[in-house]
# Entry
Amino acid sequence: MGGYFGSYALVVALFAIGVAVVAGALFLNRMLRPTRLTPDKLLTYECGVDPVGEGWAQSQVRYYVFTYLYVVFAVDAVFLFPWATVYAAPGFGMTTLVEMFLFLGFIALGIVYAWRKRVLAWT
# Structure
């Protein structure tokens, strides 16, 4: 198996072996598992609580807003840690300081905007 298509044949063969292993494991699992279905086992599982009511529930938007704020602060922290290490390097002092304050200013501007729109009010 040499030549141009030899490498592709090896990739296809390894892919086929991988698919066969996964399919074999799933098939073996299906053959070995106990299958005693009861009405309780066929119910929808909701964190150990019996399902009550409709399957449709509305969530308030403010939960997503706080999630987005968490992501913003997590990204902020991801940028702050490398900045703190580069800030100590010679020749990067004032430039990195100005860039970081610009970055923090944009984040603060977004938080002030959300605060003024009363998105952060938890009522």
Notes: The helical segments are 6-32, 61-87, 93-116. The longest helix spans residues 6-32.
